[in-house]
Amino acid sequence: MIEVKNLSKSFSGFLAVNDASLKIETGSITGLVGPNGAGKTTLFNVIAGVHAPTDGQVLLDGQDITGLAPHELFHRGLLRTFQIAHEFSSLTVRENLMMVPADQMGETLWKTWTNPSAVRAQEEQTRAKADDVIEFLEISHVADELAGNLSGGQKKLLELGRTMMVDAKIVFLDEVGAGVNRTLLNTIGDAIIRLNQERGYTFCVIEHDMDFIGRLCDPVIVMAEGGVLAEGTLDEIKANEQVIEAYLGTGLKNKEAS
């Protein structure tokens, strides 16, 4: 689905992504791991159109999407979430979800005057879609809560729900577990697996929690110093001496031995 070819991105001479090449296969949950500063989030930002690459190419289903803006990629079904959730804090969970679909008739003032019945019908469809997402994610108990009052984990679930409002093809999840307690992280993991298996979503996940990566992801891609260091199952990655020495270090060896 996604093919990254020899991608590089530099900032004022600093090479954050260095000649990285990788593939994300349709229907996979691909893990992207590496130390802080490895270039993971910058790679996400280039793929998702936040930054233009210095060099290289990004393909989506064989089509060149290099340098397209985020809103253009949104319409092609490519979405991303962020390490810090971005919600409309003064709107409810349901209202946050209903804000997502593009080109809603109610956003155009003259349509609300000339065709109010069509505007209401579309709004009812959007509300029904939001309620379906709320039920799928099992967050009905906070559907009418202001999003600003949610916990960190609930905000991450809401971000995941927003991707469901447009039936995304591929979703890039940036540290979905950051600041989330274990119970909610398991809930988020369950939702990702169900979206993958039941609705055909493809995911690429940046995460430092190796247990979470191991539960969800195959393959796992390791980045270090802006480039792709290794790829394989998590067990293969853990056994890769190059990865152990360059990234995971003795800490993983000690953890595995204990």
UniProtKB/TrEMBL annotation:
SMART domains: AAA. Signal peptide: none annotated. PROSITE patterns: ABC_TRANSPORTER_1, ABC_TRANSPORTER_2. InterPro entries: AAA+_ATPase, ABC_AA/LPS_Transport, ABC_transporter-like_ATP-bd, ABC_transporter-like_CS, BCA_ABC_TP_C, P-loop_NTPase. Keywords: ATP-binding, Nucleotide-binding, Transport. GO terms for molecular function: ATP binding. Pfam families: ABC_tran (PF00005), BCA_ABC_TP_C (PF12399). The keyword Mitochondrion does not apply. PANTHER family: CONSERVED COMPONENT OF ABC TRANSPORTER FOR NATURAL AMINO ACIDS, CONSERVED COMPONENT OF ABC TRANSPORTER FOR NATURAL AMINO ACIDS-RELATED. This is ABC transporter ATP-binding protein. The lineage of its organism: Bacteria, Pseudomonadati, Pseudomonadota, Alphaproteobacteria, Rhodobacterales.
